[in-house]
Amino acid sequence: MQSGQGNTREEIACFLETNGLGIDDDIAQFVIARYQRKLIACAGIAGNTLKCIAIDTEWRGTSLSLTLLHEAELQAAQNGEHHLFLFTCPGNVKSFRGCGFYPLVTIVNRAALMENTPIGIHRYCSQLRSHHLVQGNKIGSIVMNANPFTLGHQYLIEHAARECDWLHVFVVQEDVSSFSFKERLAMVRDGSRHLHNVTVHPGSAYIISRGTFPGYFLKDKQVIDKVYAAIDLTLFRNYIAPALNIRHRFVGTEPFCQLTADYNRAMHRWLEEETGIAATIRVHEIARKTDGNNIPVSASAVRRLISERNFSAASHMVPETTRVYLNSGVPHSSCLAERLPAEV
């Protein structure tokens, strides 16, 4: 059932509200169950993520949840999505384990991230290790959207590369940005090609975009943002960083966006504090590169200039390798022709 069918979507929203849940806007489809015309269960599908899952109280503890999740997985498979993720409350983890989902990260009393395979994250990390592990005393990392890749991004990469024996740069994979993932990955690769000790990675499904993080089971937006940061950073610390011996993470200071500034602060908590689970990762906040007026270079400013069709001003804030996207909109053939690995 397509979520765009207004009356049914309103019915689902009311059902979710009755169960203490909200509804996320990015859901493309719902799988629903009825008994004597009454809606008794629903599961939303948004790309590779199942969300907005609810079972009527009278039907909990039955096989309905297993049937519902199975039907949702079949529908997702028809959409071409076989590797699925699920965000839920920690109290529901046991139930979803019985439906074939396995926990990746649990933030106590807040949220849990699960996937529908017991080996997904381990297979991904094994591939990272076998293809991209580089020995060195100081292995660093950066995670970026690069929407688009600016002189500020290039400055951060160059600064981190000078400080590290090897630097791993991960480009967030979801296509929820102004520039497509392929374009952004190409920009970063072209803009850092002159550096001999840098590997640019497709971010993979295990580096989560804030734009696709669900908040249907969390009422407070500030709590949603904090939980998103906690899950994303814990995934990185517990799985990705150990696979590549990463012990340092670099990020630019954030003078404008409160959401990004909060995420930077969360890095210090979730990466640097001793937990006994995985090695600590030192966070390096690097002062942002500024323009001639001492204003920090930002991708949002470049996007604003592009929307105003002021390509000349925008071009002064990006490296030459990015300008082709601003001036012509034609994909950069040297990188966009490359076949992107599925996971690495």
Automatic annotation (TrEMBL):
<keyword id="KW-0436">Ligase</keyword>
<comment type="function">
    <text>Acetylation of prosthetic group (2-(5''-phosphoribosyl)-3'-dephosphocoenzyme-A) of the gamma subunit of citrate lyase.</text>
</comment>
<dbReference type="Pfam" id="PF08218">
    <property type="entry name" value="Citrate_ly_lig"/>
</dbReference>
<dbReference type="InterPro" id="IPR014729">
    <property type="entry name" value="Rossmann-like_a/b/a_fold"/>
</dbReference>
<dbReference type="GO" id="GO:0005524">
    <property type="term" value="F:ATP binding"/>
</dbReference>
<dbReference type="InterPro" id="IPR004821">
    <property type="entry name" value="Cyt_trans-like"/>
</dbReference>
<dbReference type="InterPro" id="IPR005216">
    <property type="entry name" value="Citrate_lyase_ligase"/>
</dbReference>
<feature type="domain" description="N-acetyltransferase">
    <location>
        <begin position="1"/>
        <end position="119"/>
    </location>
</feature>
<dbReference type="InterPro" id="IPR000182">
    <property type="entry name" value="GNAT_dom"/>
</dbReference>
<protein>
    <recommendedName>
        <fullName>[Citrate [pro-3S]-lyase] ligase</fullName>
        <ecNumber>6.2.1.22</ecNumber>
    </recommendedName>
</protein>
<dbReference type="InterPro" id="IPR016181">
    <property type="entry name" value="Acyl_CoA_acyltransferase"/>
</dbReference>
<dbReference type="GO" id="GO:0008771">
    <property type="term" value="F:[citrate (pro-3S)-lyase] ligase activity"/>
</dbReference>
<dbReference type="GO" id="GO:0016747">
    <property type="term" value="F:acyltransferase activity, transferring groups other than amino-acyl groups"/>
</dbReference>
<keyword id="KW-0067">ATP-binding</keyword>
<dbReference type="InterPro" id="IPR013166">
    <property type="entry name" value="Citrate_lyase_ligase_C"/>
</dbReference>
<keyword id="KW-0547">Nucleotide-binding</keyword>
